[in-house]
Amino acid sequence: VMLHYRPFNDKLERSGFVDLMLNYGVEKCLYGHIHNEDAANTFAGSYWGLDFQPISCDYLGFKPLLLWEDE
Question: Which residues lie across from 46 on neighbouring strands?
Fold first, then answer.
């Protein structure tokens, strides 16, 4: 799933978006809308059985991120 905003708050509390992803078997969530100082305080990793990857330019330092490789 790709979302513009992160699907949890600053305390990593679940939202309805997280519940929907879990109900539908989503494994990975990519999200953005992270700017400047928020980039240092965002979450990347696994939580609730979902892998979260912030993909905003500020978070990534304006460097491309390889999401998957052809096998």
Answer: 51
Do 1 and 21 touch, CB atoms closer than 8 A? Answer: yes
Q: Which residues of 55-70 are buried (b: 16+ CB within 10 A; e: fewer)?
A: bbebbeeeeeeeeeee
pLDDT digits (tens, 9 = 90+) for 25-50: 999 999 998 887 777 778 999 999 99
Tokens of 66: 């390889």
53: amino acid identity, one letter: Q
Q: Is 5 exposed, middle or buried (0-12, 13-18, 19+ CB in 10 A)?
A: exposed
Name the helix (H) or strand (E) containing 70. Answer: none
Token pair listed for 21: 């992803």
d(CA 38, CA 9): 12
Q: Which two tokens stand for residue 42?
A: 């965002």
